[in-house]
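Record 1 of the preview.
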Amino acid sequence: MAYYRPPGPAPDPLLVRDLTRLQDEMRTRVRQEPLAQEPQLIAGCDSSFPTPETILSVVVLLRFPSLEVVEKVYNVGPVPVPYIPGLLSFREAPNVLLAYEKLRQKPDVIMVDGHGIAHPRRMGIAAHLGVLLDMPTFGVAKQKLTGTFQEPGMLKGSISPLTDARSGELLGEVIRSKDKINPLFVSPGHRCTQATATRLTLACLRGYKLPEPTRLADHWAEEFKKELR
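->
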C-alpha cells in the first residue's frame, strides 16, 4: 500500500486505544489453513492517496494460473482516520471493501499489497481484510514492518524466514522475486498458510519485482488517477 504520512499533531489517544482494542479482537479470529482447492481466480489490491484527504483503492481480478485479467475496479473516498503507525489498515480497509463490492465475480484468494501477520500485533492489512471478508488472503510487501531475517540469496526464488526476534515465531518469508533486487516480504493473512502464500507469490511472477496481481493493481491505480484529474 502507498501510505501518505502527513505531518501534524499526534492522533487522539482515545481513537488509538479503541482501534488497538478492535485490532486485538480481530486478531483472535485469524486462522491459518490450507486452501480448500487450487484457486481459479486470484485478486490483487492496492491503495494510494491522490490527495491527503482522498484514498483510491483498486482490485484487479485475474485467472489463475494464466494471470489473464478478468476485471478491474476501483473506489475513491475520503480518508476515514488519520495516519497512525501500526493501525494503517483502518485507514485503507473500508475503501478497499467498497472497491471489492464492485467485482462481478469473486476471487478464491486475495493478494494484498501490504503485510499479513508480519505486523507488530499480527494484524496487517491482508489479515484485516481477510477477517472482514472471511476470505483467504495474504500479504506481499516491499518493506519489512517487524521481525528479523537473513538476506536471501541474490537469485530469483531465493527465500529466507522472517521471524520474531524474541519468540522465534515464523512471521513470513523473504523472497527474492528478481535477480539482484531488494526482496519482498510475504506473509499469510487469513485462511491461508505461509506455504500457500509463498507458492502463489512465486507462481505470479512474470519478470517484474512485484507479482502480477499487486503489480497490476498498482498500475491501474495510476491509470484511474488520471480519470480523477
